[in-house]
């Protein structure tokens, strides 16, 4: 067979891109493939067995549509693009996630999709619940909380809360992270699949969980209602309230659902009950509503029947897998605990080793210090011995000095006593000299007065004598001027002349004695002053010796 022949027999293909919530895949599909062929290929690639929950969704003319399983892919109204893009999403939701989601991959895909719907605000969630859900999402992503590893700011790049919640409360990113981390720290020991399941168990109780909404009208002119389809039935809502339905039809109470063009009819099981009719904007919307109703109704009935062999096998495998995972988790937890205990023991041993090393180092340093101290003490002992000898020598010298000072002190006391005695004597001499000076001054004054009186008496006597001579012998003086009666006068006045001469001699003698006594007084005063100076010098010298003796003592 030629190569050209092989090429002709190769089927023609087209490319598709499958987008899951967290990944993208590309496949080559044969031109004749139906929707189920492509869907099965994707499920095999994902390892998914619970295929009844999922579908391939695409968007055409602004409307989301699900790929039909029983028709060829290329025969359906799909986007004309290369590759053709499909979103692999959950089309139907379980009533109880913990009982119906058996595979871990199924659970993980539901977790990612529901989380995205909450963050995109397609499912309303209260702020408190969003924080709790965010903590489970963090546990599923990061594992157990470790304050040494998960430092502040580790959630800065994670989208965990709806923007509506962030706008509603004026909190910083750090405050939100602190709130989430407080819950996150409580989930220690929870595995990833358990954290995702806890997330879904909380989310399935939200009013908008698993509901597909469509705008409808009770007549052809107005669109004033919403029709919601979920795992439990069909619900009618007012246009502004998607939480509390105005009317609900459970799947068990619906007998038939049909559409004609844009009109859709819901017939209750009770034939007496009113038939509900409504209108949609397009025929495609009615087809989509009917498709979702049929799928949810089939699952609703399937849950209430005995499980098929395949489902029983899957549940058994799921139980075994859960048991195995539980044991594995317990083993891992035990190993982790043992590892943590071993690490703590290792840290304790390292700490103890470090402590012992530190103690050994300190002991070694103490030993070195002790040796140095011993050497220093030996040196100090030698120095102390030398100092003791020196001190003994100094003590002996001090004792000698003390004895000398005592002797000096005794001498000083004796000299002080002599000095005081001399001072007293000097004071007495000074007093005597003052008294003698006063007495001599008084005597000199008296003598001067007597001398003055004597001279005055002499003058008067001479004058009187002259007057008497003139009165008694005036003729002798005038008659015999050439005659000098010297002898006569001498004879007549011999007695008086002798008295005058004696008087003069006494006066001279008195003056001489006064002068002599004055000179003696001056000489004695000079000697006394010299003696006082000597006493002052001696007193000054004694005081200096006394001060020096005081300093030495």
From TrEMBL:
Gene Ontology cellular component annotations, sorted alphabetically: cell projection; cytoplasm; nucleus; plasma membrane
Record-annotated membrane-spanning stretches: none
Biological classification of the source: Eukaryota, Metazoa, Chordata, Craniata, Vertebrata
Molecular function (Gene Ontology), one example: actin binding
Gene name tied to this protein: Nf2_1
Primary location recorded for the protein, binned into one broad class: membrane
Protein known as: Merlin
FERM domain segment(s): 14-304
PROSITE patterns, per the entry: FERM_2, FERM_3
InterPro entries noted in UniProt: Band_41_domain, ERM, ERM_C_dom, ERM_FERM_C, ERM_helical, Ez/rad/moesin-like, FERM/acyl-CoA-bd_prot_sf, FERM_2
Superkingdom per UniProt: Eukaryota
Gene3D superfamilies documented for this protein: 1.20.5.450, 1.20.80.10, Phosphatidylinositol 3-kinase Catalytic Subunit, Chain A, domain 1, Pleckstrin-homology domain (PH domain)/Phosphotyrosine-binding domain (PTB)
Pfam families, A to Z: ERM_C, ERM_helical, FERM_C, FERM_M, FERM_N
Database matches in CDD domains: FERM_B-lobe (cd14473), FERM_C_ERM (cd13194)
Recorded coiled-coil stretches: 311-464, 518-545
Claim: Oxidoreductase is one of the keywords in the record: no
UniProt keyword list: Cell membrane, Cell projection, Coiled coil, Cytoplasm, Membrane, Nucleus, Phosphoprotein, Ubl conjugation
Location(s) in or outside the cell: Cell membrane; Cell projection; Cytoplasm; Nucleus
SUPFAM superfamilies: Moesin tail domain (SSF48678), PH domain-like (SSF50729), Second domain of FERM (SSF47031), Ubiquitin-like (SSF54236)
Residues annotated for a 1,2-diacyl-sn-glycero-3-phospho-(1D-myo-inositol) binding in this entry: 68-71, 287
Membrane topology designation: Peripheral membrane protein
Organism: Casuarius casuarius (Southern cassowary)
